[in-house]
Fold this protein.
Amino acid sequence: MRRFAWLLSGLMLVTLFVVGCGKKSNVDTGQLQSSFKSADSATQSDVNKAVASIKDGNYSQALSQLQAIAKKAKLTPEQQQAIKDVIARVQQQMTAMAAGAQKSASDLQKSLPK
């Protein structure tokens, strides 16, 4: 039972470490921001919130915000493409983070005595 508690504690620490270290965003939002400079103020506000979520490393929130923006009918082709590109990069970042957490957990499990 103690071994299980140690395993669970270690797994939680590794997960927190990976998530905490993943706060620095590798997603470039420059094109997204520049394509929405001429948008109405409400849309610009939505884009700024999504960019802030990306920079904070809150990718799930950013993804839902970007998807909501993408559903707006008044987007230009450039804005639509910028949204698609950033959504794809956010999804790639989320996948990379999940793979890193899974590898760390697997390595920890292998290092525990049997």
